[in-house]
Amino acid sequence: MRPTDRPLVSVRPRILATVVFLAVIAANVAATTVLFFAAGLSGNTLIDIGRLTGLYGGLVLTFQLILVARLPWLDRRIGMDRLTTWHRWTAIGLLWSLVAHFVFTVFGYAELDDKGVVDEFVSMITQLEGVLRAVVAFALIVLVGGVSARFVRRRMSYETWHFIHLYAYAAVVLGFGHQVMLGKSFASGGIAWTYWCLVWVAGLASVIVGRLVLPLARNLRHRLRIVAVVPESAETVSVYMTGRHLDRMPVKAGQFFLWRFLTKDRWWQANPYSLSAAPDGRTLRLTAKAAGDGSSSLRSLKVGTWVFAEGPYGAFTAMHQRKTRALLVAGGVGITPLRALLEEIAGHVILVYRVRSEQDAVLLPEIKDLARARGAAVHVLTGPSDWSGPFGPLLGPDSLGRLVPDIRERDVFVCGPPGMTSATLRSLREIGVPRQQVHAERFSLTI
To answer: TM segments (predicted)?
Structure first.
């Protein structure tokens, strides 16, 4: 089936997935609240508030596990960048619910026992085993949250940040033990205990399946290895891979993998790269610019090297196309997923490629050949990042509106450096392109 013949979806996948996910959250919040009140109140308002916020904190923690599990159904419809953003939002909710649980519980028992707050806290730690576990779990969550702050994250390597985040799983185990051991709602077992165990099992199982079972199974099945390493320019290189049964790999143009090249000095590094050509069932190709130690060393990879690929990930695909025409806006090496999408996107396509000079336009000859074959238009905009044309910034609202007069009737896919992507999205808002027709994905990694 040619791209122009592919039927467009009638239901927006992202909306469907979001509604389903929020409905599951609402149902579990309701169930947790009902079971809490069914277990009976303590007679002390502070203690009851502390217990309830603790339950909500545990529930939020299980949903955080699902958000970082990279489950295919959610990832393909919502995208890893949005799931990462949701993960950050729920992390704030988790922190405040646990703080409220700690404060209200300690103050409530201090009031009940007629003790000072510090004395009560010391008594709880020394006399109740589950409380000490909870304090350690809380400290680990604060540690993980602290290293995720942007000003800290920017000063830390991904590998170090990832290793510290693994402590979050220890916090999950300790938190579950604390709630089951001391939670009044679970003291008598029954429905509440069974329900809570199922919630936590679902969260942990999601991580195990999404982060361990699926990647291992897919790599054992496909057995990827490098068949060619081709320099595209002085700074960019393409890596071609083949494997078994690639025609059965559930991958779409526009998606990316976390690639591990299994050499003695690189096997432990995972780097996100998009496919730079639509999957054809025989080979996979990535194209990367030398922007760091990982991508700089791609040029030295040898033919025959085995590859471990986690994915595919991302919702930056033609699955989300709503209109019969599309605009692709690329900046720099952000052209790679759009080059792949150019093969699969439906209808008439305009590609706008923003680079400093035409020599920096990676893959341009094959893009022009592909565009010519399918009747697409390609515009290469050159100049420094602050360069302006006769109608203002090259990706500003006036310039884009004149370059693509029917832009409001197109799906717009944007990929490039953060500054360029943000500026383009602002321009699209000013032009009045409906939000549901704008698609952009940033490679934000979670634990």
So the answer is: 55-74, 86-110, 130-152, 164-181, 193-214
